[in-house]
Amino acid sequence: MKNFAVFINPAFVDKAAIFRLLEDLAAANRIRFYGVRDQQALLPAEIEVFDPKDLARPGIDCILVFGGDGTILRAKDLALQTKAPLLGINLGYLGFLSETTLGELKTSIRDLLKKKYRLLPRMLINTQVRRRGEIIFQGLALNDAVIHKTDTPRLIHVRIFSGGRFVFDTRCDGVVASTPTGSTAYSLSAGGPILAPELRAIVLSPLNPHLLTIRPMVFLAKEKILMRVHGLEKPASLQLDGVNASPLEENDEVLITAAKQQVQFIKLSNRTFYQILRRKMHLGK
Asked: pTM for this structure?
């Protein structure tokens, strides 16, 4: 690995500390760092910027993501465009998706250069919004796609089908459709199960359903899950990875399928998923 892209949480206060460290790493290891054009205003002049959509862009071997889990989610598109794996450097609170810290980065870079790492693929979900049979929106999510009632105080109705077969209809605040990676995020807060990130499955977790008999469910990744919203007084909203993506109107359909694309994460340590759960989520304590 010689060419590293840098993706930074713009809200992080001490960016200068990051840039000093990158300068030292570049000199000591003869590696190069690049930034994306959208973050050019954050970067010092010595870091060359590139447009991920430019076919003449430099070949990127790894993306260093400085921030918390939200920053890693925002770096998903860069990983898809460059085909490079992500290495999260935690600057946030939980950092569940991060593999290293700013203080450990020198050692982590040495391990990368010595090829002492593994690549772990993570499943994405593809989300389509259909209105009167026409696709009006399509996007990918690494964590989750969320139907939410937004501004109305009343519950909305969501009717769910799997592979064309009716599953259930629920009055609720919304529904979280989660990947295994996202099963430790919003879905977990909604009472959903924790899935090992290597699994290929989709979790549906209703938000505050009116009936106690409505529970989170796990579906095979090969299933096509369709959610039809109805009973709306005001438009609802579709959110992808915590970002508003599309308004939803009466009888709009949201189709959730496993995406063909995957994002790869770099694994440096021997810490297991269960060790991370115990340490960062205090599982069992």
From this structure: 0.92
